[in-house]
Design brief:
The structure holds two protein chains of two kinds. Helix content of chain A is 35%, strand content 24%. Chain A contains nine helices and ten strands. Chain A has helices at 50-57, 79-84, 101-111, 116-129, 145-157, 175-190, 202-208, 226-230, 235-243; strands at 12-21, 24-34, 39-43, 65-70, 73-74, 86-89, 163-167, 194-198, 211-216, 219-225. In chain A, the strands form two sheets. A six-stranded mixed sheet of chain A has the order 6-7-8-3-9-10, with helices on both faces. A four-stranded antiparallel sheet of chain A has the order 2-1-4-5. In chain A, a hairpin with a 2-residue loop joins strand 1 (12-21) and strand 2. By secondary structure, chain B is mainly alpha-helical. Chain B has two domains: 2-257, no CATH class; 277-536, no CATH class. In chain B, 77% of the residues lie in helices and 0% in strands. Chain B is built from 22 helices and no strands. Chain B has helices spanning 2-20, 24-54, 58-79, 98-110, 113-129, 136-167, 169-195, 199-209, 213-223, 228-239, 242-257, 282-295, 298-313, 315-337, 345-349, 354-361, 369-377, 382-412, 418-442, 461-493, 496-527, 529-536. The chains are: A alpha/beta, B mainly alpha.
């Protein structure tokens, strides 16, 4: 993994990112530096700009302003080189429904110019760890949600990326599969990889991520090591402190009681 | 580049193999569509080969052929909706340049059954235009350029449509709907018009059509045996726009890959929602009230009303409704009205709207799967479901009962047949509703609810549904044959009372067919409820 890095060693630097959709400002001058080898949790309410930020990193959204560097590569000037360093699991998932998981990975391997034997070997290992071996030759269309997530994760890891972007990776995944996926992500990090994941599940972010960024209305309103941000509280409480709590009127829904 | 082409061809064939490994109907559908593509290619290829070698003035023939086929392919690609063999968004994050991705998608589009068809037509065109080995120097590149034109034109149109549908669903829906009407209308009219032209007219049309790049390719084919230099000139003019088309395809592919919707509700809004309704004209509110009342009370009424609301708020089903209506009316009215003296029979035929109803609602269950599952969970029984959906079909198509006969009466000025025409229309509506509910009960094609503009039902289910549509139409024709013959007989005698009487008879038969359809649907849903829910639930 000999890749150029930015001066501070960060595999992902987002500087003053701005994105408008019509008259809606989705990202408003967001700046985010992801430490090398970290697992960075991006949390925020629905519509806060998490997915748009992640899609911008791989050039699937064209920013209106700002700069994104992946491993020192400016995404705006060389998106292909940047993509070569990134593995990504988007939400909603984008898979070829009529392929089997093996065929899906073989296709991606071909597009990334990996040797077929290497693809097969890595795919077999990935499927074994993800407990997909028995289903890897079935069509993806017949998979459960969790199996689809695991297939997408395997595809994202296939080319041994430097940076892994995961948009809601554990949504709809059962606890056993989630634990398997976490183990795999830990192994990825121990090999020097960096993970950025977005999630609504605070417990999971708390357990998995050593750094957290809170995004709200397109801005990074808080960021830092998870323990620092928590400051002795649960991450959920810290998050609500930052975002602000929505209270429910005592009289509302009285008919339910 | 060779590696890229190999990868995308392999992907295309993996996808086809995947469909072949699928369920029975899907497998049958892939096989049938492949055979149909081959037969189409062989048929058209043989026709153009024979025509090219036998017609004296082959230059005009090639111009007409090249331009009309290109136009038809363009129309089909728009009308068939936004479908691509490979969804570019699945490979959006892969390190492929825009050019490589575009090339790969073109290769994958060309390497399936439609590509087979194109190759066979290309061979036919080559055989038809070749006069000795020397002419092949011009003919072969010209045919290749024409095939490339077809590919780029259709794919760019599909991309553009996907882009518009993705960003502005309502606009995309209107474009496809109008294109559908124009295409099917042209499909009815153009062959009849061409058949009535003499040679001078055809030459004139060919001259006009040759003033475009595709027409120039036709002229190159025709001139190859007379003047190689002139043919080469036409070929050069014909390929001039290929780089422009390629650039357009590449840029639309890139835009589509990065395309995002503006807001979570933009995909499902062709009619105003109830909160927005206050600001729209009163007429819409009135129509809404009438339709709600027509749906009736109780569970079946609620299902019918919900079905109509979602039908017009979902771009795909709204589109099916409008194009189905246009296709059905065009198929019935155009051939009749093109006759020298259409007479009062045209007004009666204008009421034969069952084809339109079947086109509009032949997949009423499959396009509504998740909502129906919710209704079943909420306590709707099979009978309530069948009645509610049948009502929604009939109400959505009801305007055609008036539009068809009035249109025909206005053109033929045979107003005295209008009441009978409307009665035939009511009969056609009821019978068509019964047929549609049977069709959608037997082969529902689950349509995914997704923001993916490339999403479609499973491969093959559509083919099965098309075969069933033919069978249902045949069955309806058999059931209505006696009263149709009686109507024709009465019309030929010019007896208005008898025509009116038999017109009323069609209503009775239509009612019986509809009741029979509901009974069949109820019986089948009762017997195969869980399998039915599985069948109408999209995999994603």
């Amino acid at each position: 993994m000999n890749v150029p890095m930015s001066a501070d060693g960060s595999p992902l630097r987002i500087l003053e990112l701005t994105k408008w959709f019509g008259s809606t400002c989705a990202i408003d001058g967001l700046t985010m530096i992801v430490p090398n080898g970290s697992c960075y949790g991006l949390v925020g309410p629905n519509g806060s700009g998490k997915s748009t930020t992640l899609r911008s990193v791989v050039g699937l959204v064209r920013p209106d302003g700002g700069r994104i560097e992946v491993c020192g590569i400016d995404v705006a000037t060389d998106v292909l080189a940047a993509r070569a360093e990134v593995g990504v699991v988007l939400d909603p998932l984008q898979l070829f429904e009529r392929l089997s998981a093996h065929e899906f990975l073989a296709t991606l391997g071909e597009l990334r110019r990996l040797e077929p034997a290497v693809v097969r070997e890595r795919a077999d290992e990935l499927f074994a760890v993800l407990q997909l071996t028995g289903d890897a030759d079935r069509q993806i269309a017949g998979y459960s949600h969790g199996m689809r997530k695991k297939t997408a994760l395997a595809a994202a890891l296939l080319h041994r990326p430097r940076l892994l972007l995961l948009d809601e990776p554990f949504e709809g995944v059962d606890p056993v599969s989630a634990r398997t996926m976490r183990t795999m992500l830990d192994r990825f990090r121990s090999g020097g990889g960096t993970i950025v994941l977005s999630s609504h599940v605070m417990d999971l972010v708390e357990r998995l991520c050593d750094h957290v960024g809170v995004i709200h209305r397109g801005q990074l309103v808080a960021t830092g090591p998870t323990d620092t941000l928590r400051n002795g509280r649960r991450l959920e409480d810290a998050f609500i402190d930052v975002i602000g709590e929505t209270t429910v009127d005592d009289q509302a829904l009285a008919w339910l009681t | 580049m060779a590696h890229l082409i190999r990868s995308f061809v392999a992907l295309r064939w993996r996808l086809l193999r995947g469909s072949l490994r699928g369920k029975g109907t899907e497998k049958v559908g892939v096989i049938v569509s492949t055979i149909a593509s081959a037969l189409l290619g062989v048929g058209i290829g043989l026709a153009v080969a024979a025509g090219g070698r036998s017609v004296a003035d082959d230059e005009n023939l090639f111009v007409l052929f090249c331009v009309l086929v290109a136009g038809a392919m363009l129309g089909i690609s728009v009308v068939a909706g936004v479908t691509q063999p490979v969804d570019p968004r699945v490979i959006a994050a892969e390190p492929l340049s825009d050019r490589d991705r575009a090339l790969g998608l073109l290769v994958s589009a060309a390497s399936g059954p439609p590509g087979l068809s194109g190759c066979l037509i290309g061979i036919g065109l080559t055989v038809g235009a070749t006069r000795g080995a020397a002419t092949m120097v011009i003919v072969v590149p010209t045919v290749l350029a024409w095939l490339a034109t077809l590919l780029l034109l259709t794919r760019t149109a599909t991309n553009t449509l996907g882009l518009v549908s993705n960003r502005f669903p309502r606009t995309g829906q209107v474009i496809v709907g109008l294109s559908g009407l124009v295409f099917y209308g042209a499909f009815q009219v153009v062959p009849a018009v061409l058949g009535n032209l003499d040679r001078g007219d055809r030459d004139q049309i060919a001259r006009v059509l040759s003033i475009n790049p595709v027409g120039q390719l036709g002229r190159a084919l025709g001139a190859a045996d007379e003047s190689m230099i002139a043919a080469a000139g036409h070929l050069a003019l014909g390929v001039l726009w290929l780089p422009v088309l390629a650039a357009a395809f590449q840029s639309t592919t890139q835009a589509l890959t990065m395309s995002t919707r503006h807001g979570p509700h933009s995909a499902t809004s062709s009619l105003p929602t109830s909160t927005a309704l206050a600001s729209v004209p009163t007429i819409l509110t009135t129509v809404r009230k009438i339709v709600r009342r027509a749906c009736g009370a109780g569970g079946a009424g609620a299902i019918a009303w919900r079905s109509i609301l979602t039908r017009f708020r979902t771009p795909r089903t709204a589109l099916e409704t409008f194009t189905g209506a246009g296709v059905g009316l065009a198929a019935v009215l155009v051939p009749t009205l093109l006759r020298d003296a259409p007479g009062g029979g045209a007004v009666l035929v204008g009421g034969a709207i069952q084809l339109a109803v079947l086109f509009m609602s032949g997949n009423t269950f499959g396009s509504d799967g998740p909502a129906l599952a919710n209704e079943l969970v909420a306590g709707a029984g099979p009978s309530m479901l069948a009645i509610g959906k049948t009502r929604s079909i009939a109400i959505a198509a009801a305007p055609l009962v008036v539009i068809g006969p009035v249109l025909a009466a206005a053109i033929t000025q045979e107003w005295k047949y209008l009441p009978a025409g409307v009665m035939v229309g009511v009969g056609g509506l009821l019978a068509g509703s019964g047929g549609a509910i049977v069709q959608s009960t037997i082969v529902p094609v689950a349509i995914p609810e997704t923001d993916n503009p490339f999403a479609a039902g499973e491969t093959g289910r559509g083919m099965m549904a098309a075969l069933l549509l033919g069978a249902v139409l045949l069955a309806l024709a058999v059931v209505t044959l006696p009263v149709a013959l009686a109507l024709l007989w009465a019309n030929a005698r010019g007896s208005l009372p008898l025509v009116t009487l038999f017109g009323a008879g069609t209503m009775a038969i239509g009612w019986a067919v509809m009741r029979g359809g509901i009974a069949f649907s109820t019986w089948r849903l009762t017997r195969r409820g869980p399998e039915f829910i599985t069948a109408i639930t999209p995999s994603r």
